[in-house]
Amino acid sequence: MVVEDDAETRARFVEKIDGSEDFSVIATAGSRSEALAALEDCSPDVLLVDLGLPDGDGTDVIEHA
Q1: What is the pLDDT of residues 16-57, one digit of tens each?
Q2: Are the C-beta atoms of 26 and 1 separated by less than 8 Å?
Q3: C-alpha dist (Å) from residue 52 to 20, 22, 23, 37, 40
């Protein structure tokens, strides 16, 4: 799961991760609230989280996961 508020950066992360043989992105979010909602529907093995999100701290997402 990729949590990044900058859409361009998020898209680049997704492109690189999905381009690998070993990983795929199952969810993305652009804010803390979107990420917390997405975590209700999926259980990612790996989180890539921006710590400075527009609506809160990315560590909240990590703690919730």
Answers
A1: 999 999 999 999 999 999 999 999 999 999 999 999 999 999
A2: yes
A3: 26, 28, 24, 18, 21
- For the whole model, what pTM was predicted? 0.94
In contact, 4 and 51? CB cutoff 8 Å: no
Contact 30, 4 (CB under 8 A): yes
CB–CB of 18/64 below 8 Å? no
Match 């199952």 to its residue by tokens. Answer: 26
Three-state secondary-structure class, residue 55: coil
The reported pLDDT for the residue numbered 38 is 98
Sequential DSSP letters for 17-52? HHTSSS-----EESSHHHHHHHHTT---S--EE-SE
